[in-house]
Write a structure and sequence with these properties.
The complex is a heterodimer.
Chain A lengths: L4 E3 L2 E4 L5 E6 L6 E8 L3 E9 L2 E5 L6 E5 L5 E5 L8 E8 L8 E2 L3 E5 L1
Parallel strand pairs in A: 2-11
Antiparallel strand pairs in A: 1-3, 3-8, 4-5, 4-9, 5-6, 7-8, 9-10, 9-11
Chain B lengths: L3 E4 L2 E5 L4 E7 L5 E7 L5 E7 L2 E5 L2 E6 L4 E6 L8 E9 L2 E4 L3 E6 L1
Parallel strand pairs in B: 2-11
Antiparallel strand pairs in B: 1-3, 3-8, 4-5, 4-9, 6-7, 7-8, 9-10, 9-11
Classes of the chains: A mainly beta, B mainly beta.
């Protein structure tokens, strides 16, 4: 059974650019959630999607956005990149109903220069 | 104040010792998760709890909903248990995380 696939694994971008990260969940999982991990702030919740609908979002500026497609694959976009956006971005998939755990992807390491 | 507090922040143990990590939270939750992260970033879900106690191999997790407290125990610790252990609480489809406990087990 394939795990959660995140692409790309590593990314270097310049301040002011935008970036799109992709997450393919485990087959049959309808929920995808996104997280940012930095040494200073630890793990922080960005947003969660279920069947193409955002069910919750964290306290991040509007530059951070996401979407989910009908096949449950999800993308997150960060526009007008800042140095502080350098982080490990993780996604996790789950069936989407209560009582089930999460499976995490390996993450995308974003460096903004 | 963070919604999820973990202690200790760092822990060093000798191989074979019993290890306990504590997690306290201040909000209503539908479930609590214990996660393990090794160097390099990969996160593995160890337990999901909504009540009582769960055991998997040498790992035991407990939760007291009334006291808003959970513990993760590692029995007969081994150097391969060296990792960061993270407590996370689930509320309204949102995970909130503790700062993590860095565990080092020396041979």
């Amino acid at each position: 059974k394939a795990g959660v696939t995140q692409t790309p694994r590593y990314l270097i971008k310049t301040r002011g650019q935008q970036v799109t990260l992709s997450c393919s969940p485990i087959s049959g999982h309808r929920s995808v959630s996104w997280y940012q991990q930095t040494p200073g702030q630890g793990l922080q919740f960005l947003f969660e999607y279920f069947s193409e609908t955002q069910r919750n979002k964290g306290n991040f500026p509007g530059r951070f956005s996401g979407r989910q497609f009908s096949n449950s694959r999800s993308e997150m976009n960060v526009s007008t990149l800042e140095l502080g956006d350098s982080a490990l971005y993780l996604c996790a998939s789950s069936p989407g109903t209560e009582g089930y755990g999460y499976t995490f992807g390996s993450g995308t390491r974003l460096t903004v220069v | 104040k963070n919604e999820v507090e973990q202690s200790p922040q760092n822990l060093t143990a000798q191989e074979g010792e019993f290890i306990t990590i504590n997690c306290s939270y201040s909000v209503g939750i539908s479930a609590l998760h214990w996660l393990q992260q090794h160097p390099g970033g990969g996160i593995v879900s160890l337990f999901m709890l909504s009540s009582g106690k769960k055991k998997h191999g040498r790992l035991i997790a407990t939760i007291n909903i009334q006291e808003k407290h959970s513990s993760l125990h590692i029995t007969a610790s081994h150097p391969r248990d060296s990792a960061v252990y993270i407590c996370a609480v689930l509320n309204d489809y949102k995970l909130s995380f503790g700062a993590g406990t860095t565990v080092t087990v020396r041979a």
